[in-house]
Amino acid sequence: MKFPGARLLARVVLALVAVAAVIVTVVGCSSAKEDSKSGSAKVGDCIIKGASAEAKTETADCSSDKAVYKIAQTSDKKVDCATDYTGYQANLADGSSAYLCLAPNFKQGSCYNETSSTAVKNVDCGSTEATFKVVKRIDGEADELLCGAEADSFRLISEAPKTTFCLAKPKA
Fold first, then answer.
1. How far apart are CA 103 and CA 83, in angstroms?
2. CA–CA separation, 147 and 115 (whole Å)
3. What is the mean pLDDT of residues 10-35?
């Protein structure tokens, strides 16, 4: 079901916030964070992206290792994301969809698994699943020349806030 306007979307978001507040009161903070849906997520929030189209999308504290994406743009209609971002269709609690443009939120010193069929996820650097390690994260700059010799690849976010991720193969 698609929303005819922003006012209805605002009502749905407020309803989700109210439900989350009740859950926090009844169950506690950790369960409320697990039940949080992308409908309450906004630009600047960090998320744990669902691994499949049916999976829920959870908001998370941006300092969490599991929060590998930061929302750069939201829309109730499909949009073309900037080349630095990942496009993602999130399922809302009411059965509708939100379209998100996601920027990486990789942590310096952390390792990640990335395949073409699944979302990027944080993994232990000693794991055979690890496909890359962030050897340096530079906020406020989008320049691969800042990476240095320890990096063998990079990812740049050229939109504000600019970020350079210097990457290397994890050492097992």
1. 10
2. 23
3. 34
Rounded distance between C-alpha atoms, residue 24 and residue 9, angstroms: 23
2-16 burial: b if 16+ Cβ within 10 Å, else e: ebeeeeebeebbeeb
Burial of 98 (0-12, 13-18, 19+ CB in 10 A): buried
CA distance 39 to 170: 35
Alpha-carbon Rg for the chain, nearest whole angstrom, is: 17
Tell me the three state secondary structure of residue 19.
helix
Q: Alpha helices of the chain — where are they, by DSSP H?
A: 6-26, 29-35
Amino acid sitting at position 161? P
Please choose, from the candidates 157, 132, 156, 134, the residue with its C-alpha nearest in 3D space to the C-alpha of residue 145: 156
pLDDT band at 117 (very low <50, low <70, confident <90, very high): confident
**The model's pTM:** 0.69
Mean pLDDT, rounded, for 68-97: 84
Whether residue 170 is preceded by a cis peptide bond, meaning omega within 30 degrees of 0, is no
- The pLDDT tens digits for 141-170 are 999 999 999 999 999 998 878 999 999 999
Alpha carbon dihedral 85, 57, 52, 121, in 10-degree steps, equals: 60
Q: Provide the CA 88 distance to its chain's centre, in angstroms.
A: 9
